[in-house]
Description:
Strand content: 15-25%
CATH class of the largest domain: Alpha Beta
Mean pLDDT: 91
Number of strands: 12
CATH architecture of the largest domain: 3-Layer(aba) Sandwich
Structural class: alpha/beta
Order of helices and strands: HHHHEHEHEEHEHHEEEEEEE
Number of helices: 9
CATH topology of the largest domain: Rossmann fold
Amino acid sequence: MELSLASLLLLLAAALTALVIVLWWLLVITEGVYLGRGVVIALYDLYARRYDAIKQYDPENESRYLARPILESLPTRAPLVLDVATGTGRLPLALLAEPNFQGRIVALDLSRRMLAVAAEKLAPYGERVTLLHHTAERLPFSDGAFDLVTCLEALEFMPRPRPVLAELVRVLRAGGLLLLTNRQGRDAHLMPGHAWADAKLERHLRALGMVHVAIRPWQLDYSLVWALKAGHSAIRGARPPEEVWRCPACDAAELLPVAEGWRCLACEAFVPRAADGVAELHGRKWRMLK
């Protein structure tokens, strides 16, 4: 039985509609996470210059609902902070704009163009913030290096969120504060294997050694997750990031700032500082001096 022209057109229209819906899900709702990390990074690179306009961050809201609650939860005004998947520097900018914040921040991302935008915005704060081009699955820091570790609006877009969570906890000192976001609402149900139910995320964090886990409403699409790492240790404080970095070649914590970058005292590896100040730790951009 032959199909009429009208029926063929209807089938074609249905197929095109289905294709558009799938592409919308893959590239917009889930931001490419089911297509691989390369696609995710490519999308963030593509929208880096428009990202802040899309998100419509408001400085007063960032201070009231993010920076100030963080400062009220910390035992020191001069912490050493790690912000993973910093993007265009949202969290560092919010903290550094607070007069009471006297700490130092290491901000890490795998999207180089997002980091370039962050570098421009954070330039007035000089050495108080250090930007690293690096992946989150294996953080280049010593165990227990930071007083505060944060990761906002990013875990669900990482190919392997469980190893990232384990790394966030590893580099947090005992007694330190972990701050995450967890995807909520309709879109969370469209991200199987990447979005967590609050109760499941809490159980996983406790299994990793976190205590006093509190999950609170924050935005329409996100809850804010606060947790402390079990135990107690001395506050790390606003020390230079070189004291907690690990060499990408030999894993020694002996990086020394030198002209145009950092040099490992143990193996002579060199990590270059790009023109915008970003430390190029990703891939093989670092090299051996010998």
